[in-house]
# Entry
Amino acid sequence: MQTRNLDPDADSPLPAGSKPALHLAIIGAGPVGLSLALLAAQLLPQLRISLFDARLIDKDVTGDPRTLALSLGSVQLLQRLSVWDPGLAQAILQVNVSQAPPTLRHPLFGASGEPEVRLSAAEQGVAQLGAVISYGQLVAPLQAAWNGLVAFEPGRLSSRFGSPVKNLKPLEAPETGVEVDAGIAERFDLAVVAEGGVFADQARKAVSRDYLQNAWVGTLVLADDSPVGVAYERFTRNGPLALLPLRPVAGQPRRAALVWCMPQADDEVASLSDNQRLAVLQSQLPAAVGKLQGISGLKCFALGLNAERSLVERRIVRIGNAAQTLHPVAGQGLNLGLRDVYALVDALRSSGDIDAALQRVEWQRAPDRWVMIAATDFLARSFAWRWPGLPAARGLALAVLQALPPLKKALARQMMFGRR
# Structure
């Protein structure tokens, strides 16, 4: 089999007239696809890269308000790419995971009497556990950085915005590679699919499960004295309920992003008024959140698991939500995708054999992604179970985690950096 040499030590663009070793197609210019394009351009200067996306290149994405929760490892990757502005994000200083009544209560659980796990940046010896940022505030600097690189190296890097990819076709030897059809069929040595989408709109993959749950997402207005930089994950009888702290805006009240999961068979959120929604949320959230002051309009998304068994299909690689769409209970979907990015570029940089590099990515990423898939799947399905004693068992598990610092540290490391 013919292989193409990649020089891991090269640190400058190719000399004029030289032929790049590998032509890479990246499909999808969201956070994962753009991060891959930038990191590959930075660390693999012999690579030709073409970035495809259906949206037009001049579309303004800065106002997209979708909330993204980033782990510390993801923040560090974005810092490496020189696209991270801490002034646009809210640092997560603490994460509180607890269970709403009815549950086992005991004085050993602390002042609230409720089982909870408290993870703090100070305990872990880091400045922050992660950060919360809007989709637009993350994608805009990523795209601006990519546009700058394309302008600097137009012979090596190209943008194909406004060019939705219609089909991918693996090619057999001797023309090993991938045919990418975006109106005109072109051959690439490697294609990486980084387009995500929501569960309801995706074609079903090899591992798929409809949780028959909805996620209601929006924004809550908090009291001015509510804790700063604290994220909350609350296990309720109907499903998980999460609050993510948002960056303060001068002259505006404190806010938090809301993810409220409900079973579709017993979902009455749509029929409630804003005041009724606030009352229900106030009764389910821990007292530490403080008095809720207001709520935005909520959007509803169906939840499910949709995952490929393998990231790699010959010379086609799927990463991020293209590889696994998860329940939001752990907030790790984007972080998995960014870890896919780093592993792929690192493997290509370390090996002169493309296929060997892809095999390395497959086995290296498997433990992290399958641990997260299994954990979120178990938690998501457990809320549909009505077994006697299950809430008490879940509460005891939280209490044990809080009582054993080594277990807490392991959980915090998993949240910050994934399984290594």
